[in-house]
Design brief:
Blueprint: E1 3-12, E2 20-30, E3 35-40, H1 46-53, E4 61-66, E5 69-70, H2 78-84, E6 85-88, H3 101-111, H4 116-129, H5 134-137, H6 147-159, E7 165-169, H7 177-193, E8 198-202, H8 206-212, E9 215-220, E10 223-228, H9 230-234, H10 237-242, H11 249-259, H12 271-286
Parallel strand pairs: 3-8, 3-9, 6-7, 7-8
Antiparallel strand pairs: 1-2, 1-4, 4-5, 9-10
Helix pairs in contact: 3-4, 3-6, 4-6, 6-7
Length: 287
C-alpha cells in the first residue's frame, strides 16, 4: 500500500504553556513495496509520525492518505486502518501474555472474527515468516524462549493480522548481537518475500538502515531535514553530525582514511564494500 502525507502538523497541548510542535509541514510519498528508513535524534518527531500512520493519534492539520483513503477524515473506520497498518513498538515482547506461542499469535486474528481454520493457518504462516518452526515453538510458553525469539513471536502476532504496511520501531532494541542479527535477517527476508509489503523501519542504528532500506528520511525538530538513498544521505555526514546523528562506522573509517591522504571511495556503506575497496586499493598500489 502507498502512503501520501501532505502538510502534516502535530502540536501537543496547543495554546497552553506546555505547547510543543512535534511535526511541522511533513510532505512525504511512500510507494507500495518500499522499504523506508526513518531516523532522527530523540524528540525529532519519529514516534508521533508513526502513531499517526496507525491512527493512534490525529494530526493537528494535514492529511494522510493510505491507498486512496484519507485516514485523518472523520468517520474513517479505525479498525480497518489498523488492520492494514501494523505497528510493532519497541520491546513488543512485553505485550506477550498467553500461555503458548500459538495462542498469543492467534489473539489478533481471532478478534477479526475469522474461522478457527483461518486463524490456525495465519498462525502457522506468521511463525514461518519470522523463521520459527510452529512444530517446535508453537506449544511452548513465549516466556521460555530467548529474547530474540520472543521478539520474533511478537512480530508474528502483528503479521498474522496480514497488514499491508508494517512499521517497526527500533526492532533490535535491547537484544544481544545474536538476537539482533536474527531480527534483522528476518526483516530482510520479509522484504524480499513480498514485494507489495511496505516496510517502515525506525532506528537509531546507522549500520542497520544502511544495510536494509531503500530510502532514508531524516527528521529534525519535527521536519524533514533530508531524504534519499542511504548512500546519498550518509554523504552528508557533516550535517548529520550537526543534528546529533552519525554515519555507519564503515563510512566513518573511509572518511578518516581519506583525511590521511588515502584515495578510497568515501561512499562505502558496508563491511563488504569496504573490503572490496581496500583490496582494489592494494592491487592498484602493487601495480
Amino acid at each position: 500500500m502507498s502512503i501520501l502525507i501532505e502538510n502534516l502538523n502535530h502540536i501537543y497541548s496547543p495554546n497552553t504553556p506546555f505547547e510543543v510542535t512535534a511535526l511541522r509541514d511533513i510532505n512525504l510519498h511512500i510507494k507500495t513495496g518500499e522499504f523506508l528508513g526513518l531516523i532522527g535524534h530523540t524528540g525529532s518527531g519519529k514516534s508521533t509520525l508513526i502513531q499517526e500512520l496507525n491512527a493512534l493519534i490525529k494530526p493537528t492539520s494535514g492529511t494522510i492518505v493510505i491507498e486512496g483513503t484519507n485516514i485523518t477524515q472523520k468517520g474513517v473506520k479505525l479498525r480497518d486502518v489498523r488492520r492494514n497498518v501494523g505497528l510493532v513498538f519497541q520491546y513488543p515482547e512485553y505485550q506477550l501474555f498467553e500461555e503458548t506461542v500459538r495462542k498469543d499469535i492467534a489473539y489478533g486474528p481471532k478478534n477479526l472474527g475469522l474461522s478457527e481454520t483461518e486463524v490456525a493457518a495465519r498462525v502457522e504462516e506468521a511463525l514461518r515468516l519470522v523463521g520459527l518452526d510452529p512444530e517446535i515453538v508453537g506449544e511452548r510458553s513465549p516466556f521460555d524462549l530467548s529474547g530474540g525469539q520472543r521478539r520474533r513471536v511478537a512480530i508474528a502476532g502483528v503479521l498474522a493480522m496480514k497488514p499491508r504496511i508494517l512499521i517497526l520501531d527500533e526492532p533490535t532494541a535491547g537484544l544481544d548481537p545474536h538476537g539482533r542479527d536474527e531480527i534483522l535477517g528476518q526483516i530482510k527476508a520479509l522484504h524480499e518475500a513480498d514485494e507489495t509489503l511496505t516496510l517502515i523501519l525506525v532506528s537509531h542504528s546507522m549500520e542497520d538502515v544502511a544495510k536494509l532500506v531503500d530510502r532514508l528520511v531524516v527528521l529534525y525538530q519535527g521536519g524533514i531535514e533530508m531524504q534519499g538513498t542511504p548512500r546519498e544521505v550518509f554523504q552528508q555526514s557533516k550535517r548529520l553530525r550537526e543534528i546529533g546523528l552519525g554515519v555507519p562506522q564503515v563510512t566513518e573509517l573511509m572518511e578518516r582514511l581519506r583525511e590521511r591522504g588515502i584515495e578510497i571511495d568515501e561512499t562505502v556503506l558496508t563491511v563488504t564494500e569496504a573490503k572490496e575497496a581496500l583490496l582494489r586499493m592494494m592491487k592498484e598500489a602493487k601495480s
